[in-house]
Amino acid sequence: MWTGKYVRSPLVRSLFVNMVSESQAAATETQEWYRCSPDLLGESVQPLFIQSHLDSGTKAFLKRSVEKSSWMFTQLYHSLVSTVLSPMVSRTSINGFLGRGSMFVFSEEQFQQLLQIGTEWRAERLLDLGAGDGGVTEVMGAHFREVYATEVSLPMKWHLQRRNYKVLDIDEWQQTGFQYDVISCLNLLDRCDDPLHLLRDIKRSLVPNTGRLILAAVLPFQPYVEIGGQWQRPTEHLKIKGKTWEEQVTNLSNEVFRRVGFEVEAVTRLPYLCEGDMYNDYYVLDDAVFVLKASDSSEESAQ
C-alpha cells in the first residue's frame, strides 16, 4: 500500500496524506451505500435480503460522472440554462433538453442477481415506468424481445424514441390488451400522486404467476410531486413507518405491498446515483430495490 512515510517535503507529504485520506474516505462511503443489518429487518424479510456490492458497472458510471463534472464550460452552460428555465419547466425536462442528469439504479450484474436469472434469460415484454432517458431501461432491455416505456417529460420521450423503445402514454400502458413479464417502477412511488392506485394497476398488468415487479424506493421515504417546477404533496399520502432503512423496508414489505396484493421475493440496498454538475461529481440517495410478485389475495380484498 502507498504511504507518505518516505516523502521528504512537508508540503508534498501533506498533499499526499490528504489525497490518501480522501481516497480512504471515498472507499468507506461506497461501502456504506450497501450496508444493511439483516437482524434489524422483520423476520419475514430477513431471508429475502440480497447483499450487493460496488461492481464494475457501478464503477464505470461513477467514472463517467466524474469526467463529465470536470467539463467546466459545459457545466457553466448547464447551470445557466437551468437557472433560466427552472421557473417554467420541470427539472426532468431541463435535464432531458441538456442531455444530462442520467440516473443509475443497478448494473446488469445486479439486475440479474435480483431476478435470479442468467445472461441468456429472455422474456417477451418489459415495461419501464417513468423511464427518464432510458439509461436504466437499457440495463434491463437486453433480456426482452419488446421494450415499452412511459415518461411525462417530452425531451425524455425523445431520448427513449431514439433508443427505439415503444413509448406509451401514462394513461395507455394499462389498456394495451396485453400484459408484461416484468414492470419496473424505479424511484417513482415517492413522486406519484396516487401510489397505491399505481401499484394496483401494475398488478393487473403483469403476466399471471410469472410476472414480476421491480420497484425501487428512496429511503427515508419523502413523497413530493413536481408540477411545473413546483414541488407539492401528493393527493394520496403514503406513510411509511420506521426511522432506519431496515425498519422502512420491513414496513413497506409487510404492510404497504401486502395491502395491494404483492409479496416480496427479494430486496437489496443500492445507491441511487445521478450524474453530477460543477459542484459535485455525482449525487447519491439510499435505495431499497424490491422484486415483487402478485400474491393470491390482498388485505383489501379480504376486508
From TrEMBL:
The lineage of its organism: Eukaryota, Metazoa, Chordata, Craniata, Vertebrata. It comes from the Eukaryota. One of its GO terms (molecular function) is protein-L-histidine N-pros-methyltransferase activity. SUPFAM superfamilies: S-adenosyl-L-methionine-dependent methyltransferases (SSF53335). Signal peptide: none annotated. Transmembrane segments: none annotated. InterPro entries: METL9, SAM-dependent_MTases_sf. Coiled coil: none annotated. This is Methyltransferase 9, His-X-His N1-histidine.
